[in-house]
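REVIEWER CHECKLIST
Item 1: Sequence provided? yes
Item 2: Single chain? yes
Item 3: Sequence as submitted:
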Amino acid sequence: MKRLAVWMVLVGSGLAAGAAPTSAAITDNSATYALNMFSDVEGVNVYTQYIDYAVQTDHQVTISFQWVHDKIVIPAIDAAPGSPESVDAITSASRPILDYNDAFKDFVKIRNSIQGTVSYGGLNGSYYVSSENDYYAQMVSAGYDRAFMDENFNLSTGVAYSWDQISPYLQDGTQGSANRNTFHWNLVGTQILTPTTVMRVGLEYNAVDGQQHDPYRGVYVDGTIAPELHPDRRSRRDVFMKFSQYLGNESSLKADFRYYDDSWQVSSQTYGLKLNQRVSRQVTFRYRYRYYTQVPAWFYRDDYSNTTNVDGFQTADYRLGDYGAHLFGGHITWHPDNLFGSGGWLKHTELNFTFERYFNSNNFTANILETSLRVSF
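Item 4: Structure as written out by the authors:
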């Protein structure tokens, strides 16, 4: 936490001093606080607090900061290491396996992060830092966007570089500290097709170098449990398309498609639909469905006979296997500004409630409940 606090001060001072001239005056500012609570049927709980603050100067420079505090509680479960049940389907967190000798207990993780962003015109730059018990991450990014054709077409691009330090707890066969570096690039075009139709097309590329397996996950190999091991290098590519259509009667339909592949020979397709319906000035409903299908990584096996039969690589992560998954549910947004009359802090308050059902071809299911409170100042 001391290291995170130092970075917060340095980043805030550097971004503010470097982006805005000393003679600049603040013309607008805003602050938002949000509390989010997530849980699934297996008892994984995530409690998140957000604080956003942004200022804009008379030179059209915008400086924003976001602080996020996460508390993640993962209960120990009675399951085989490497089974789909040992990985939370939504958060991708590795679940601690229940041991009747009481060696494994519920796992609690605290994560704090801060991001500072400066934007001017179509340019933006940011720095992100995150600290938790066994993981320290940093990222710098920059982007640019520009409108064409009477602002009916927008083209944006961005790059990012992150470097992470992984320091797992040295127990139960886990390995020592490791690093991971990631380079990211994207190109996104947005076109207004008609007054009620918008299309967006994008490309993304990631090159990852460093540890990419879960240091806490074990794999059954020839009747014994061995540590998971993935290749250190991976290039990831995807292309996506999104359509937004206003349907009238204050409703809209959004459809999206994404194709992904990588150097581990994993490829996937994602299809999604969202229907938004505003039923009053205070209440909006959203219905969602998503289908996902994937082919496995080249080193994925249902069973491993020895530790060298796939060049020494082995995984218990079912998300690198061959499977399909469905997600559907509903979301309600409520602005209770007229609950006790107009005005007051409720005028800038938003409540969100989400319930979704997830299931995949590995016979794994989860109910997802998410609530959040958002207050703007």
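Item 5: Key structural point noted by reviewer: The two ends are 27 Å apart (CA to CA).
Item 6: Recommendation: ____
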